[in-house]
Amino acid sequence: MLSYNEKIRHIAKKILAEGKVEIVIGYRRGTLPMINEPCFIKHPEDVTRLIWDRHCGINLTNYLTQRKERIGIIAKGCDSRNIITHIIENKIKREQLVIIGVPCKGMIDRHKIASQFEEEIQKVKEDGDKIVVTGGGIEKIWKLSDVLQENCIICTHRNPVIYDELVAEPVAEQKDVNRYEDIRRIERLSPAEKAEFFDDLLASCIRCYACRNVCPLCYCDTCFVDGSQPQWVGKSQDPTDIRTFHFLRAFHCAGRCTDCGSCERACPMGIKVRTLTKKLEKDCLELFNWEAGIDLEQRPPLTTYNPNDPDDTFR
Amino acid sequence: MEYMGIEPGRIHFSWISSAEATKFVDVVNEVTSTVKALGPRKSFVKTPLTTAKNKAA
Hints:
The complex is a heterodimer.
Chain A: H1 4-17, E1 23-28, E2 37-41, E3 71-75, H2 77-88, E4 97-101, H3 110-115, E5 123-127, E6 130-135, E7 138-143, H4 150-153, E8 165-166, H5 181-187, H6 191-202, H7 210-213, H8 239-252, H9 262-266, H10 274-288
Parallel strand pairs in A: 1-3, 3-4, 4-8
Antiparallel strand pairs in A: 1-2, 5-6, 6-7
Chain B: H1 21-38, H2 49-56
């Protein structure tokens, strides 16, 4: 995947120089290892700042909302699905975009590495199928497949579903992935056990809203957690308020979430936020045979009515 | 809702026309009886600050 760098810069330079776009949104190296930052390039000579490696997890679709200019954007499989969702929801126009598609083989989970490394991490290097982490005089090596993000391990859309330029040949999609094993395990618990499970899951939440801020679906001008007239949800650290926030946020993502993993990656406390969004993703697939961000023409299930819609919960 | 630990039977959905008085009565009776059978909810209950303080004292 490291070899994509030159191609990405070449395409970015070309579309900027030709005036096809006014800005290219990509990634640049962050100030800390394993955290790349979004990067906005306006001049062709600046494209050398663009990079691509295993730490480009941020979903750049988040930066497209309501923009007016013509934009070149780098998109992995999941990002491209969010771009489609954005177009369907009228947050950006297809004509404004030049999508630079990047076939992706998964991003590294910084929480996984940090939790197994005692010292301050200074350098993280990809070496074939190994990942070498150094810091504080220690070097540790992991197999790449052991430190990938959970959502990347079960990803079935590694290649962009929509693009204008592709930086490399599409990679093989993963087949026979058991996407919902963890969700099914929770579904089998008793109501009391479920309540306890989510108590534990969300106990460490500090309500920083990083999961919301990083999510390309969360673009409302005033989020329900920020409004105070009316106040939809309590703003305290009370466990009930915390759970209300997380559950409601997940519901807002129903039928739209592409499981890009941004929420989980952004969480400073390492909470597995996807446990909530994935349940709704599973329901949408099972009830409506719907996967978000695959097709520009098809309307999302929660915006349409079909006489055959399942209605077992209504009497 | 059940996924987050709310018991089946605590939440009901129904579509009742204004002309369906008997259905309305049936549904309300069913809701009250199932919820009563479940008893008071134990989790996802916000403790008011005052009672929390009283307990601490």
